[in-house]
Amino acid sequence: MRSRQSRRGWAVLVGAVVVAGLTACATVNPYYEATKPHHRPDGFNNRFIDNWADGQPSFWRWQRERWAAELPPQDPSRVPRVAPDLAALRANVSQATVTWLGHATMLWQVGGLNILTDPHFTGRASPFTWIGPRREVPLPATLAELPRIDVVLISHNHYDHLDEGTVRQLAAQPGGPPLFLVPLGVDLWMREAGITRVQRLDWWDRLELEAPRGRVVAHFVPAQHWSSRTPWDRNATLWGGFVVEAWESARPDPGAPPLRLYYAGDTGYSADFRDIGERFGPMDFAQIPVGCYLPRWFMKNQHVNEEEAVRIHIDVKSRLSVGVHWGTFRLCDDPVDAPLDGLPAARRALGV
Question: Of 7, 26, 242, 274, which sits most exposed with the smallest number of CB within 10 A?
């Protein structure tokens, strides 16, 4: 249970940062293309819902309900921690591996590349070091213990996915910075932070990566979410997910199927996933969020619950999937350990 004082501090943070984003002033989209339905002169929109409606009344209703009642209890100690074989990861140049490092951060090794998704290695998902959602479960490895990172995939600019301290550390890593693949508009934030090895991407864009082994192509794909980092930039930058395709040969035979890895980013459930499945499926591996979904009436359009996560697994025709976006920060009303019970129940209900 949280004390009234800690809950008040969290409310101050959210009120100052998140809600301000919900009532943001108008922005200008420098990448606006009138022929693209998800583009607006002042930012971006989802494909299947309008995410520009005023969210302030709903937000304050959520905060009033949080204030009036204690959140469901949680037990971070239930979240299993396994020490990764760091020596094997550093030596690996040939095997495809995935290693979950907490929240939405995962190390992919494919085509001889070390790829990080939404890297977050600091103590809070917040613009401040003294307040905001804190890390409830310790990291299984530090950034310095990992192999040198070649590519970073950033899904969107929320603080639990784009952590300034972490990306600055990555940009200063020995041997040179990784290549940051980011949604439209996030490239401008990166450059303001002094990070210049950046490639911006729109939905359905593709980029051939320089891989030591074989051929690797990254695609940026839609998700149903929103963006904001300050009181003035709601939906000013894009959001999405990634599909990475890898072939063992640099010149694969025509028709040779690649290994496909998918990261959904942050998202509500939508027809986007059927479209992604039709275009790229079947996936060999999918990284799908399963946490931060309560209260449902408020979170449904922006975060999936465990049942919807399993539906994404089915929609993209994934062979193996891992649930992320849980077990690290308590960002919403659901406990950090909730998917330990909810995901097996959802799998049983849907026959997976």
Answer: 26
Q: Which of 305, 331, 253 is nearest to 62 (CA)?
A: 331
> Is the alpha carbon torsion for 221, 293, 336, 166 positive or negative?
positive
Bridge partners of residue 199, in order along the sequence: 181
- Contact between residue 126 and residue 331 where contact means Cβ atoms under 8 Å apart: no
| Among 156, 154, 208, 159, CA closest to 180 | 154
Distance, in Å, from the CA atom of 53 to the CA atom of 23, rounded to the nearest integer, reads 10
Q: Give strand ranges (E) for 81-235.
A: 97-102, 105-110, 113-117, 151-153, 179-183, 198-201, 206-209, 215-221
Dihedral sign computed on CA atoms, order 92, 93, 98, 102: positive
Q: Per-residue pLDDT tens for 248-270?
A: 999 899 889 999 999 999 999 99
Q: 74-98 burial, b if ≥16 CB within 10 A, otherwise e?
A: beeeebeeeebeeeebeeeeeeeeb
Question: Tokens in use for 155?
Answer: 């899904």
What pLDDT does residue 56 have?
63
pTM of this prediction? 0.92
